[in-house]
């Protein structure tokens, strides 16, 4: 029985010692690659067309109608109430706010990319210290 235990222990020991013999080492080379940052050109500014606004009341309605017919040849009406005009102005203000916020976000990220690129350029352009025995004392 004792002999069986010895044989089992020796066999188990041999397996344990030889178990790592077949493992291959894995060499991993890590190379840092700088991604190219592209800053898109800003779109051209918007060019808005002029709009003529006329305030027509009951007092000047007939006169305005004659003038408009003489200028345009036909009369077409688009009406808006003062409350709806106010709502339209508030909507335009809200769109302007959104555009300004989006523009500031774009400028923020462009500045981050520019400073990052400047730091990389400065690091690359720095003169590497020369190695040598006498440069040690400088």
Structure description:
The longest helix has 44 residues, at 82-125. The two termini are 76 Å apart. The chain has three helices and no strands. With 138 residues, the chain is mostly helical. 53% of the residues lie in helices and 0% in strands. It is rod-shaped and about 125 Å long.
The quaternary structure here is single chain
- Average pLDDT reading: 80
Summed up, the helix count is: 3
Rg (CA only): 40 Å
Strand element count: 0
Helix share of residues?
40-55%
Strand content: under 5%
The separation of the N and C termini measures 76 Å
SSE run: HHH
- Low-pLDDT parts are none
Short structural description:
The protein is mainly α and 138 residues long. Helices cover 53% and strands 0% of the residues.
Topology:
Layout: H1 2-18, H2 61-72, H3 82-125
List keywords for this structure.
138 residues, mainly alpha, 53% helix
């Amino acid at each position: 029985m004792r002999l069986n235990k010895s044989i089992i222990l020796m066999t188990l020991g041999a397996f344990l010692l030889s178990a790592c013999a077949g493992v291959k080492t894995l060499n991993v080379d890590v190379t840092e690659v700088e991604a190219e940052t592209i800053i898109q050109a800003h779109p051209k500014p918007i060019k808005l067309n002029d709009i003529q606004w006329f305030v027509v009341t009951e007092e000047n309605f007939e006169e305005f109608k004659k003038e408009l017919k003489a200028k345009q040849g036909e009369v077409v009406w688009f009406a808006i109430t003062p409350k709806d005009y106010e709502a339209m102005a508030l909507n335009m203000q809200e769109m302007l706010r959104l555009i300004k916020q989006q523009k500031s976000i774009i400028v923020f990220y462009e500045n981050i990319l520019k400073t990052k690129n400047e730091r990389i350029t400065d690091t690359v352009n720095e003169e590497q210290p020369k190695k040598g025995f006498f440069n040690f004392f400088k």
